[in-house]
Each structure stands twice: as C-alpha cells, then as structure tokens.
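Hi team, as promised in this morning's meeting, here are the two structures we talked about. I've kept the exact order from the run log so nobody has to guess. The first one is mostly here for context; it's the second one we should focus on when we meet again. Sequence first, then the predicted structure tokens.
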Amino acid sequence: MPPSGLFFSWLHRCLLIALIGSICVCSAVAEPAPVQTGNVPIEVFQVLDLPVNVHEALLVKAEKGYVLKIGLSNSTESKMMGLRYSLSVIDSSSTAVTVVNRTEGFSLAPYAMKSFTFKTPIRFNPKGGDRLVLMVEQNISRDSIWDVLKAKEALAAYAKGDFSVVPTVLRVANAVDAPFLAPQPLRLRQP
C-alpha cells in the first residue's frame, strides 16, 4: 500500500481531473446554437411525373423577407416557361400549413439544368422544429401544361409520413401560349 501522503495526492489529482472534465462536458452541452447565416433549407416533395424536377431549394435572407433560390432540370424536348409551387410548413403535429402558393416565370431550355433566384419576397418567420416543404404543382411550356391533381391531399399525406400517396399528373394542351398558326388559303389547280 502506498504511503498515505502519496495516496491523498493521487486521489486529489483524480478528483481534480474529474471535476475539470465534468465542467468541460457541461459547458459543451450548454453551448448556444450556432448563429444562422439567414438561409433556410427546404425539403422538396418530388412529383416524378412532372417534366421539371427540383434538385435543391433554399430560402435566402433578403431585405424584405426571403427569396427562393432553386435548382431546376427539364426532362422534355419542350422549352419550359414557368411553374407553380407551394411552400408549406410542417409543424411538430405533422400538419402542413401553406406559407405561399405562387406562379413564377422563367426560361429553361430542353434537357437543361439551371439555378434560379425568384426575387418576389416571401415573408416568413422560421420557428425551431418546423420543416419547410416545397412542392411543384404545375409546369408550363409553350405547348403543354402539366398539372398535379389533388396536390394538397398528397402534401398532407406526405406531412403525416404516408409516402404511399403518389400524386397524379394531368397533361393538357396550352391553348394560351401555343403559337398561332393562321389557316392557309386553299389553292385549287387550274386545269
């Protein structure tokens, strides 16, 4: 057995190390949350039957609120002219509340990828524990319009964790933006 003075010195060192270690652990746990840069990440609810897919979405802090920065890709031979999207908050009770539902215009070449920042400000106050979800509800090209049927129901099921509800997409002719082809006069042959 070691001498009593050496034993108490050794015990004193061990207790001192344990005390310093517990102070370090407590200070690490009580450390405040990191300061946000003003950007808010957005979860994307993909609708696979639409020709435009969203690869990344982010709310970027601006002077009058937030602006949407989004990465898109076009998987058709048609030039895309715009889309309608819904930005919703899913709270802790798995309820989706719409923040904004907008139509934005852009130009996206066939089979191209591009990032856009939509400058229309979104007034939104982020709260801890809430998730932001973006869902594209409509794609517009010169020839066609792709529309998601029952988009709100699909988003509500997604918010509750039911991934079995797959949104249906309806494609219709774009009678407004389609090029107008004037009828040509009939020319009869002279005998």
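And here is the second protein, the one for discussion:
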Amino acid sequence: MRAAATINFAKPLDLGRTLKLAIPSLVIIILIVIGWSKFGPFKRPLPATASQTAAKNASVPQQTEGVRSTLKPEGFNPASATCTAGQVQLVVENVSGTAPLTLRLTRANGEAIGEYQLDRYLLKQTVNLQAGAYTLKEVNHSAWVLQITAQ
C-alpha cells in the first residue's frame, strides 16, 4: 500500500526560484502586448494632418476623358465624337485587318497635332485638346476619318 502524499504548508516558499520563473514569463507577455498594440489587427491609423491630406489630393491625377472608336474595314465607328477640352485619351481599336497603321491628328485648320503608330490592335494616346474641331485620319486610307469636337 502506498503512503498518502502530504503537503507541508508550513514550509516557506522558495522566492528565488519563483522569481526566476516569473520574470521571463512576464517579459514575454509584455513584449507580446507591445507588439500586438503596434502591429495588431486593432491598430487604428493616426488621423491625417491637413498638409498630409492636401499632399495626397494633389498627387491624385485628374481623370482623363476618353474618345473611343473602332477602326473597321469601312472606317471609324463611330465616325464622330465629342469630348471636353483638356487631357483626352484617344482609344482606337483596330479590327480592320490592316496593320501597321499611321493615324494623324490635325486641327480643323490643318495644323498637325501628332502622328501615332497603331501596330496591331489598340492605340491609347493621351493628347491635350483645346476647344475646337479635330480630325483623326489614317494616312493611307482617305475614307478612314474620325471627327472630334472638343468643347
């Protein structure tokens, strides 16, 4: 038969041993709490100052208006477009079966604005258009004309 284990409550605690175990555990818990508060999922961003908000808004580019047309064997579809004057993105999708193409943008008075190469399927070109009438033509196909009005 076994003797029952007895607990002697009169024996003093070994404070040195207790501290040796408690201090490292406490340090680990403190480090976890600090890390959680800095990088945890409940961290809230600090409110932005007025200068930070202004800088962020200034760095956001203004949205560019677009003129889109599809170039088919019979020409541009649609053959005319209207946009707001300013930065305009010309988008031409080539389904004509012909490539490469050279597109020339001119003002109504004949002044050349630019010439753009359409190698295969798509041209995306940002241009600055002042108010007025413009023509986008394929240089080797006189019937392929897109009339653009910037207001």
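Starting points for discussion:
The chain has a mean pLDDT of 81.
The domain at 65-150 is CATH 2.60.40.420 (Immunoglobulin-like).
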